[in-house]
């Protein structure tokens, strides 16, 4: 696993944006796996700035997001569909038909999951998957205990994840209790993974990611088995890791 230590959040965002921009330049029809949460917001902002200044084109790019809440219409300001449009898609030239997020309103959630998984395969898989990390080690919305063999599936969110994400909602009650998420094995099939982390509150999670046994009780530990992972994290998030020896 490669670790890139940055001085702060801005530099983390710049390094991550460069990875994506270079990939899109080398492979204009790349498939990008997208993440939500606070961590990638700066990276998305820099992709928009690069698009405006340098015209990097997303006309042939396809995206698949990691997850979506169940029960929020895509127009809801807290859906991940809205997040992605406001953070990035509305400001670059990616065609709407090439954007994929699970539909959290599909009455047949099992079918939605199967279809999402098929769409990713039909597309030839994901070239680069961007990941954040939950303080409990979740990746996407794969909470502790999720099978490493899981494909896209429905997950019941833990109380701690709902509390962490309640900052975007008016109250904890409004935070959905379930989500559709790519599974661990879906994520592991991505050709390259970039995990972003910033701030002291992620320091324990990064330590466990790198030093725990690979175990379903800490989902992100599976990344130790992936052949091409780069962690881009700032000094605060890496404060428990000696980067030279990691
Ligand atoms: N489903 C998302 C994850 O994909 C994200 O990595 C995590 C951390 O979010 P943040 O970046 O805001 O700390 O939150 C959510 O639960």
Automatic annotation (TrEMBL):
InterPro entries: Glc/Gal-6P_isomerase, Glucosamine6P_isomerase, Glucosamine6P_isomerase_CS, NagB/RpiA_transferase-like. Pathway: Amino-sugar metabolism; N-acetylneuraminate degradation; D-fructose 6-phosphate from N-acetylneuraminate: step 5/5. One of its GO terms (biological process) is N-acetylneuraminate catabolic process. Residues 10-226 form the Glucosamine/galactosamine-6-phosphate isomerase domain. The keyword Magnesium does not apply. The keyword Hydrolase applies. SUPFAM superfamilies: NagB/RpiA/CoA transferase-like. Its EC number is 3.5.99.6. One of its GO terms (cellular component) is cytoplasm. The active site is at 67 (proton acceptor), 136 (for ring-opening step), 138 (proton acceptor), 143 (for ring-opening step). Pfam families: Glucosamine_iso (PF01182). Catalyzes the reversible isomerization-deamination of glucosamine 6-phosphate (GlcN6P) to form fructose 6-phosphate (Fru6P) and ammonium ion. This is Glucosamine-6-phosphate deaminase. It comes from Alkalihalobacillus alcalophilus ATCC 27647 = CGMCC 1.3604.
């Amino acid at each position: 696993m490669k670790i890139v230590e940055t001085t702060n959040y801005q530099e983390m965002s710049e390094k991550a944006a460069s990875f994506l921009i270079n990939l899109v330049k080398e492979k204009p029809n790349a498939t990008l796996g997208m993440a939500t949460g606070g961590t990638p917001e700066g990276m998305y902002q820099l992709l928009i700035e690069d698009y405006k200044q340098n015209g990097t084109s997303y006309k042939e790019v396809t995206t698949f997001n990691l997850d979506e809440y169940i029960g929020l219409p895509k127009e809801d300001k807290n859906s991940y569909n809205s997040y992605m449009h406001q953070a990035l898609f509305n400001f670059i030239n990616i065609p709407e038909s090439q954007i994929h997020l699970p539909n959290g309103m599909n009455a047949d959630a099992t079918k939605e999951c199967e279809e999402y998984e098929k769409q990713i395969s039909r597309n030839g898989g994901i070239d680069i998957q961007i990941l954040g990390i939950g303080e409990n080690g979740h990746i996407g919305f794969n909470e502790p205990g999720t099978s490493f063999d899981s494909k896209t599936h429905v997950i019941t969110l833990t109380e701690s994840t709902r509390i962490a994400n309640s900052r975007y909602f008016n109250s904890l009650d409004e935070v959905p209790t379930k989500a559709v998420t790519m599974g661990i094995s879906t994520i592991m099939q991505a050709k390259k993974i970039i995990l972003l982390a910033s701030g002291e509150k992620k320091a324990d999670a990064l330590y466990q990611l790198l030093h725990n046994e690979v175990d379903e009780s800490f989902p992100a530990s599976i990344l130790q088995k992936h052949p091409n992972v780069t962690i881009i994290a700032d000094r605060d998030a890496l404060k428990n890791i000696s980067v030279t020896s990691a």
